[in-house]
Amino acid sequence: MNFFKTTLTAAVVVGLGLTACSTDKSNDMDSFVSDLMGKMTLEEKIGQTNLPVGGDFTTGAPMDSPIGELAAAGRMGGTFNLTGEKIYALQRVAVEESRLHIPLLIGMDVIHGYRTVFPIPFGLSASWDTTAVERMARISAVEASAVGINWTFSPMVDITRDPRWGRVAEGNGEDPYLGSKLGAAYIRGYQGDLTRPDEILACVKHFALYGAAEAGRDYNTVDMSRQRMYNEYLAPYKATVDAGVATVMTSFNLVDGIPATANKWLVDDLLRKQWGFTGMVVTDYASINEMTSHGLGEQKENAIRALKAGTDMDMCSDAFIGQLKEAVEKGEVSEELVDRACRKVLEAKYRAGLFDDPYKFSDTTRIAKYTLTPEHRAAAREIAAETFVLLKNEGNVLPLAAKGKIAIVGPLGNNRDNMMGTWSANGVGNECVSVFEGFKNYVGDKAEVVYAKGSNIDAGDRIEQGSQAYGGAMRDPRSEAEMLAEALQTVRGADVIVAAVGETNGMSGEGSSLTNITLPETQRKLLKALLATGKPVVMLNFSGRPTVMDWESENIPAILNVWFPGTEAGNAIADVVFGKVNPSGKLTMSMPRTVGQIPVYYNHMNTGRPNDSGDFHAFSSCYMDVPNSPLYPFGYGLSYTTFSYSDFTLDNDKLTKDGKIAASVKVTNNGSVAGTEIVQFYTRDMAASLARPVKELKYFERISLAPGESKVVTFDITADRLAFYNADGETVVEPGAFKVMAGPNSRDVETLDFTLE
Ligand code: BGC
After folding, report:
1. Most buried among 20, 327, 686, 746, by the most CB within 10 A?
2. Residue of the nearest CA to atom 12 in ligand 1?
3. What is the pLDDT of residue 470?
4. What separation in Å is there between the alpha carbon of 284 and the centre of ligand 1?
5. Does ligand 1 lie within 6 Å of residue 205's CB atom?
6. In a mutational test of the pocket of ligand 1, which residue from 83, 510, 512, 513 has the highest number of ligand atoms less than 8 Å from its CB?
């Protein structure tokens, strides 16, 4: 039986609102796609490689593409950022009106939830909880697929060491091992095994090295040695390939001087040949056209370059569709390359099950049933509470008792829109719970909760005038003095003040780089005035990146970093502030003391003149004015209980190439409440053929301990865990001296020595 014919019948039947009939699954993907491609004209094949934007919301210049006409003519392989019923309507045009009835990929940046919004990815990473990330991705897929989305542009696994870069908010921070574990969890959550109608294609991005943009300025140049790439930046992309990610997005930046989209070494050699990736490669937004600005000439040659490099689908440049036909006809590029790209697009559709049932993702009954359900909201609340990082808790100000008068002050204290963070897909600001609302929900009539705004965000006119940075009606027309006076009035008689300060959700994310990542002066003034009342002050810091909080950490007794927590923000914050949930999040990027230290990251090289003391020593590698260390190190985060580490041992101090040694540490909960600790193990290579970092995270475990309970956590060290990419481009394991470290963060570790024989 002809598979495609059967599929088409099924599609039309479903399109008429009847039930889908079963399809003959005996044909494998190759023969199915070959058969289909045998019927396609050159133009139709090129059409599959075209990805115009749908237009409901865009990330670049608004583009009014006539996508309905393109779909009917078979001149596009998919679209993205289209919402609601338009998705179904467009799919129907492609399936019923185009000559070969090929369904469309329907993409969207569903990166931390679709309608139920979860914490921003950077916040999620602070949970160090792969299960939570997988669950979040699974729920995102369920909600997004219900409206017909079959492809998400997530996860972003770019390693980020520069908090000035706004897209820190979208990633997993500075560590390749943690980034790999989390990246793979996203893939499992979105894709499952791609058999169910609520599993969608994932797209890992941005391949590659986008997080290393110079000076943290978005879209800026990247230049990096191969050994740094392999040893420090590439692992998370590779981990998602190993986890079966269906698609990969190339990045905007240069790699070895060539834009990633046209970089044959990157896409063809590394991704496909070395890593064995068999899926589809899509460009980032208009990145073929941006090659002209990079200085690589005109659209036609860049379309050819991208195709030759191994890129299959052109997002928003209209370059493949505009240039490839003529290029093939003139012999400037072979039709085989167009065939390869078209095949990859069709294979992605096949894997998504679109040829079985093009409407499997467009079942309107599922929208009501699976969108923003109480279960999804409960998951968002639970997961958000895991992402908060307790940076300071002097005198155990936290947790608060639900009694007396609690004053919430600050520009983010009663704001719903800004709880969602960057890229919140189809999230609705008004469905979010503000801090004030969450606190009132929590305490009921047990305590009085009052609120005053206290100040504007006041990050400066240039930011305020920027298009996205101030999402929602953030600016209060009242003067600074008036707002402060109102706040001081409101806090009268309060037992405690909770200051909700930080950035708006538009101050991080794409196109939102900053050189100043301290709290704006107006907000600092507000904090000073609140402290001057003599009342205990708890600071909730909302941010999409590490904040420079030298003054705050010196002066405010309790600081909880809450990132942007999503739909259930206020409830989740209340759960932690009042101690129903004990905070367990740990930083995934170092928090600098000052912008001038950036990049500051834990897994740096030692240099020939290290300075670990923190004091200034001339002719050692340090600054005259501040220590090298960050204010809060990678892996850092407090709890309402205290954990002690003891009995750190190795069962052997010699490791053979095929053997293993067990590094064990006993962790005890010494406090009076249960808590979750993230136990971390690092190694250091002391005698390699090239310089290796002072520490590399190699293993972690989240453990929950009742008061007084202890648990032994073991990291099995094997030689392959110590491998690295050497100066000759080989991955090697070199014998010699090593150190292994265990502790609650990257700074406060105990160290043992062993030798690899
Ligand atoms: C971003 C991508 C995103 C794409 C589509 C681009 O500007 O860099 O991360 O997936 O737009 O929205």
Report:
1. 746
2. 59
3. 59
4. 6
5. yes
6. 510
3-state helix, strand, coil in the chain (%, to 5): 35, 20, 45
CA distance linking residue 194 with residue 71, whole number of Å: 24
**395-446 residue pLDDT tens:** 999 999 999 999 999 999 999 999 999 888 899 999 999 999 999 999 999 9
Run of H or E including 736? strand 736-743
CA of 60 to the centre of ligand 1 (A): 8
Cα–Cα distance, 226 to 728 (Å, whole number): 10
Domain range list for the chain? 4-367, 374-597, 643-756
Shortest-distance Cα residue to atom 6 of ligand 1: 285
Q: Any idea which residue has 């978005």 for tokens?
A: 218
Mean pLDDT in the chain? 93
Structure tokens at 471: 């999402």
- Give me the pLDDT at residue 11, please: 35
Question: Is 284 part of the annotated catalytic residue set?
Answer: yes
Closest residue by Cα to residue 145 from 193, 199, 77: 199
**Alpha-carbon gap, residue 359 to 311, rounded angstroms:** 27
pLDDT tens per residue, range 705-753 = 999 999 999 999 999 999 999 999 999 999 999 999 999 999 999 999 9
Please tell me what DSSP assigns to residue 244: T
pLDDT band at 17 (very low <50, low <70, confident <90, very high): very low
Residue 85 confidence (pLDDT): 77
Q: By alpha-carbon position, which residue is closest to atom 10 of ligand 1? A: 153
| pLDDT band for position 1 (cuts 50, 70, 90) | very low
User: With a 6 A CB cut-off, is 170 part of the ligand 1 pocket?
Assistant: no
Which one-letter amino acid corresponds to residue 265?
W
**Is residue 330's pLDDT more than 80?**
yes
Distance CA 19, CA 13 (A): 7
- Give the Å distances, CA to CA, from 311 to 149, 240, 292, 307, 569: 22, 18, 17, 5, 39
CATH number corresponding to 4-367: 3.20.20.300
Ligand 1 atom closest to 153 (CA):
10
For residue 4, the model assigns a pLDDT of: 36
Domain 374-597 CATH (choose: 3.40.50.1700, 2.60.120.10, 3.40.50.1110, 3.30.110.30): 3.40.50.1700
